[in-house]
Structures are given as structure tokens and as C-alpha cells.
UniProtKB/TrEMBL annotation:
Name of the protein in its database record: ribose-5-phosphate isomerase
Native species: Biomphalaria glabrata
Keyword match Transmembrane: no
Sequence similarity: Belongs to the ribose 5-phosphate isomerase family.
UniProt keyword list: Isomerase
């Protein structure tokens, strides 16, 4: 069957709509339908290749035998733990891994790595973690997955923190790509006054984070609630962090200021861009 270009495009669009409306997703391979071999756009998660590339490079460049390693939380850290486990099988790295969350503890255990704690290993050589957004000064927003407090403690105990992310997280100014706000961990009994005080002191919208598969709010690994402070415009993040910490009931913020010098950003085609800060 011969189809001209316009007819072909319309046909493929309809086909794609029908597929998606039926709940199908497209894999990396092109579709072959009868004698039509289409070149439909690839619908795979393009951020995954970047996450893997960043994780692999950060692990290969920074994890060495005998270290105490802080293991972050989120979707990107999963690839770093996989890489650490692969290398561990071959190189017997003899690491002690300190988790930043329930998820991180499961990852460490599931990959046969040695689980440690701050009680027995308070001096961490290297921590690896993800981020929700990184600005030009390498300040970070973290806590999109609700794990900011233990992450910040582990990062503060580490000689070096390396951040891994796909390039969507790379911004000049915080709030450019991450629109969900600054995550703030709060004591449950204080959440309402904290919301009111944040609105009064900083403006914007301090929203209580609600759970999606449970009625009510998200409860962190530490038994607390989260407020996402949605803001507009540019801010002095050191001022904002100080103001937030002065509100009684605020336990920790997802602003990671001056905590890392190196971020590995993976591109959709698997390249890695390193963003670094001089002393
Ligand atoms: O609470 C979650 C953590 O701060 C994550 O490290 C952060 O949200 C980045 O997660 P992901 O690697 O899934 O983008």
C-alpha cells in the first residue's frame, strides 16, 4: 500500500493514540505492523539512561576498597547501589554502607552489601545521593521522596558528598525545573502553626504533603510530616534556611547548601557532565 506523507503521519498519529488509549506503552524497538515498519518516536523513560550513566561514573571514580559509604535515597541511587554491588562481586571492596532511609537500608541488604550505622561508623568517607534540583552554586533541593533528614545527617558526617542526577535537575536557579517546592520535615503536632508562620515570614504556599496510597499525610521514616513550601522568584537560600530553622516545629529542610562540590549529571544518550565547585 502506498501512502503519501500527510496520510502516513495522520495514520501513525491515530495509531499511536489508539495504542496509548488501550494502555500500551512503546518500547525502544520500532513497531512492525504487517508490512508497515514505522519510525514512531521512542516513548521510553529517557531520564533512566542519564541516571545510570551518572551513577556508574560517580561510583567508579569515588568508591574505593575499605570505605564507609553513605547510601542516599530515591530512584537514581538504585543504579549506584547496583554498580557498587557489581564491583563488590569482582573486587571484594569490603565496604560498610550507611543508609539514609528505609529504602536505602533495603537496597543495601538486597544487594548483599554490609549494613552499618552511625553508631558504629560515625565517620563516613564518601556519600552518594540524588537531588531534585541543583543550582549554579551547587545548592540542592532534596526530599522529593521524603528522605531529607537522614540524608542531611549522613552527608554532614561524610568527608565528601557526590550527587548523581539526570540533566533535567541541572538549573541555574532553584525552582526553575523543580516546581514542587522546598520539602520541610515538621513535627506532626506543629504542622498547622508551621504552615501559618512560613506563609507569614516567606509568603508562597506551604502545603502539607498528602499520601497517594493512604488517606492523610505522608509520614516520613522518622514519623514526621512534610510541608512543601512552594515559592516564587529568587531567594537567598541561606536566609530562607535560617528563617525556616527558626520556626518551632521545623525539624529539617530539604535545602542542602554548600554540602557538595561535585554533581554528576547523566544525559539521555548516556554521557556524563560533571558540575563542580572550586573551594
Ligand atoms: O527524598 C528523596 C531524596 O532526597 C532523593 O535523593 C531526591 O528526591 C532525588 O530522587 P531521584 O533520584 O528519584 O530523582
Amino acid at each position: 500500500m502506498q501512502l503519501n506523507l500527510v496520510t502516513k503521519t495522520t495514520f501513525y498519529r491515530k495509531l499511536l493514540r489508539t495504542f496509548l488509549s488501550q494502555g500500551f506503552s512503546l518500547s525502544k524497538s520500532n513497531l512492525t505492523l504487517g508490512h508497515f515498519h514505522t519510525s514512531l518516536p521512542v516513548m521510553a523513560d529517557t531520564s533512566e539512561a542519564g541516571k545510570i550513566a551518572a551513577a556508574n561514573k560517580a561510583v567508579d571514580e569515588n568508591i574505593k576498597e575499605g570505605q564507609v559509604v553513605g547510601i542516599g535515597s530515591g530512584t537514581t541511587i538504585v543504579f549506584a547501589v547496583k554498580r557498587i554491588a557489581e564491583r563488590n562481586k569482582v573486587e571484594n571492596l569490603n565496604l560498610i554502607c550507611i543508609p539514609t532511609s528505609f529504602q536505602a537500608r533495603q537496597l543495601i541488604n538486597d544487594h548483599g552489601l554490609t549494613l552499618g550505622s552511625l553508631e558504629t561508623s560515625p565517620d563516613i568517607d564518601v556519600a552518594i545521593d540524588g537531588a531534585d534540583e541543583v543550582d549554579s552554586d551547587i545548592n540542592l533541593i532534596k526530599g522529593g521522596g521524603g528522605c531529607l533528614m537522614q540524608e542531611k545527617i549522613i552527608a554532614s558526617c561524610a568527608k565528601e558528598l557526590f550527587i548523581i542526577a539526570d540533566t533535567r535537575k541541572n538549573s541555574e536557579v532553584l525552582g526553575t525545573s523543580w516546581k514542587k517546592g522546598i520539602p520541610i520535615e515538621v513535627l506532626p503536632m506543629a504542622y498547622r502553626p508551621v504552615q501559618l508562620k512560613i506563609a507569614q515570614l516567606l509568603g508562597g504556599k506551604p502545603l502539607l504533603r498528602m499520601a497517594s496510597q493512604k488517606a492523610g499525610p505522608v509520614v516520613t521514616d522518622n514519623g514526621n510530616f512534610l510541608i512543601d513550601w512552594q515559592f516564587e522568584g529568587k531567594h537567598d537560600w541561606y536566609d530562607v534556611d535560617r528563617i525556616l530553622h527558626n520556626v518551632p516545629g521545623v525539624i529539617e529542610t530539604g535545602l542542602f547548601l554548600n554540602m557538595t562540590k561535585t554533581v554528576y549529571f547523566g544525559t539521555p544518550d548516556g554521557q556524563v557532565i560533571i558540575k563542580s565547585k572550586k573551594n
